[in-house]
User: Fold this.
Amino acid sequence: MIIDVKNLSVEYKIGKNYLKAVHDVNFSLNKKESLGFVGESGCGKSTLAYALLNLLEKNGRISDGEIIINDKDLVNSADREIRSTRWKEISIIFQNAMTALNPVEKIGIQIINALMEHEKVSKKQAIERAKDIFNKVGISPSRLMEYPHEFSGGMKQRAVIALALICYPNILIADEPTTALDVVAQRQVLELLLQLQEEFDLTLIMISHDISVVAEACENVAVMYGGEIMEMGTTDDVFKKSNHPYTKLLINSFPSLYHEIAELEQIPGYPPSLEDLPKGCPFAPRCSYAEDICFSEKPAMREVKENKLVKCHFAEELDFNKGGDSLLVK
Assistant:
């Protein structure tokens, strides 16, 4: 096992209070496995990603749990050890390439500096590594010493991928890697990520609100809502045989990739505020299947079949799957 996250909770201090943004998240991955996190904006996906790297804002903290990477617990490690783990063992592609790169410094210098900070290499060796990684992400090494504004949006995203991979990490977090791109560039970047995962033997954690990206790129998926994982399993199991009402609504609110265009479903209401989280299931106020117990008692995460986990009181009783295949998975 290359990463093992146990009972992870994250809080932000707002005024005098701590508000829980991620609650009791558990997952583990082996080498070359992939896991995608999906959900509406504000559900805790990016907070989870930054927590895995211990890169939370100053008002954020990991309040509980463990993050075990290659047998090291990052939650209880000293800053020096955490810094040595970043980039070399776990790295991230930030969601906005424009802000991830320093606009007044040449891209090659940024990549070279990151490598020399984390590995004992000469500047000459660092330059050669940077040229090689540019080749791997599909950018000519002749453009290594250009500024970010000289790159198109798709090329900037490739440069950010190069920056994340320069130290050959074991685990790569891709936080909304295709969001700001046109559909052609999205396809190219997604194919590049899958190619690099195979070439570098990467364990991939993908964060996205675009569930079609996760459906195509990841073997496993976790659906988040209100800072919690509501359903988790293989991509086929989650998207073809959903057991949680939120998962099904999320899928049906997305245009079909394989069937005729139909009227999309709208998820009623709004996601919960961190200042006023429901006592029971966080999705209960928006769920048409909710009963009294859903408002008063938080459901436990339980296994409804092998390797399929769901957090719903009625996960085994509800049938959302009559009448056809998933809109996302063939």
Notes: Confidence is low (pLDDT under 50) at residues 322-330. The chain has two domains: 3-218, 244-310. The two ends are 30 Å apart (CA to CA).
